[in-house]
Amino acid sequence: MTAPGAWMKEELGSQPEVWERAAALTAERAVLPAEGQRVAVIGCGTSWFMAQSYAALRERAGHGQTDAFAASEAFLDRGYDAVVAITRSGTTSEVLELLTDLKGRIRTIGIVGDLASPLVDLADDVVGLPFADERSVVQTRFATTALTFLRASTGADVSGSITDAGKALTEDLPEDLIAAEQVTFLGRGWTVGLAHEAALKMRESCQAWTESYPAMEYRHGPLAIAAPGRAVWMFGDTPSGLSAQVAATGARFEDSALDPLADLVRAHRVALERSLRAGLNPDVPRNLSRSVILDA
User: Fold this and answer.
1) What whole-number distance in Å separates Cα of residue 43 and Cα of residue 94?
2) How far apart are CA 6 and CA 3, in angstroms?
3) What is the CA radius of gyration of the chain?
4) Strand, helix or coil at 69?
5) Does the structural domain 6-156 have CATH classification 3.40.980.10?
6) Backbone angles phi and psi of 128, in degrees to 5
7) How is residue 34 annotated by DSSP?
8) Which of 77, 112, 144, 188 reaches 20 to 30 Å from 15, CA-CA?
């Protein structure tokens, strides 16, 4: 029997390697929507947050209007040229139902870890990332690998991100983050999705009290819970004055010179360490399964 968190540890530690493999999939980028097309990106949970990041990256790169939806709340009858579905398992009920409904009406592209899943037959085109699939329920490398592939497709140079991910795996983790009573994650633009994902990761793995917001929204109320023994973790560029305002509350303000996606790897490591200290197993967290498959 494997030790608690062994799968998560192995999978999060492999991220630089699998990101590099994803970045090299240049031919597979051809199935993604063409520049200028209007695109919706869908997913559930972690995949929804990666959809948010990709949507912001694609639109800001000038490739066309791009919106992100939770699969269960998607409004797709808006003249989209294509729908991109992100799903590790390829079995998530809401995603499959949506693709079934769209069949023959809107072109769909699936990004999936399991190439034997039902999604492969439902989507018009598929980008398979089986080398990034995972055994742990708590998802790390599939999500970040999918986003690395999509980020590269917008013309971004991801080599620095891959290098920084290696650094993120070896840097010492601040004890204040591991022991924090509460952590709030913040982002701007494409990193808002990363903030939401980091918060989810800690809730899933170690049952922590976490919240997440666009950084400029944090001072519109959520700042009220900042206090000594708590932390605010910023992904990407910090808004002017924010670090000083957080410091004045006694909370730790965490930001990093690493690429934001690599900084998410640090959050994965903190989540793993917190879960192990709490005597939990993030590979099989309470009340969760690897894929949400709903009864008909």
Assistant:
1) 9
2) 5
3) 19
4) strand
5) no
6) -95, 135
7) P
8) 188
Give per-residue pLDDT as tens, 76-100: 999 999 999 999 999 999 999 999 9
3-state helix, strand, coil in the chain (%, to 5): 45, 15, 40
The mean pLDDT value of the chain amounts to: 95
What is residue 121's DSSP assignment?
H
Summarize pLDDT for 35-46 with one digit per residue, the tens.
Answer: 999 999 999 999
CA distances from 5 to 213, 270, 272, 293 (A): 28, 12, 7, 24
CB 112 within 8 A of CB 87: yes
Task: Of 91-95, 127-131, 192-196, give the lowest mean pLDDT range.
Answer: 91-95
Question: What pLDDT band is residue 278 in, cutting at 50, 70 and 90?
Answer: very high
CB atoms closer than 10 angstroms to residue 209: 14
Rounded Cα distance, 107 and 64, in Å = 16
Task: Tell me the two tokens of residue 34.
Answer: 């063409």
Q: Which of 135, 44, 141 is nearest to 86 (CA)?
A: 44
CB atoms within 10 A of CB 172: 5
Distance between CA atoms of residues 191 and 173, nearest Å: 21
**pLDDT the model gives residue 285:** 74
41: phi then psi, degrees, rounded to nearest 5? -120, 130
Domain boundaries for CATH 3.40.50.10490 within the chain:
6-156, 163-277
Count how many Cα atoms sit within 13 Å of the Cα of residue 30 in the half-sphere of its side chain: 3
Is this structure's pTM higher than 0.90?
Answer: yes
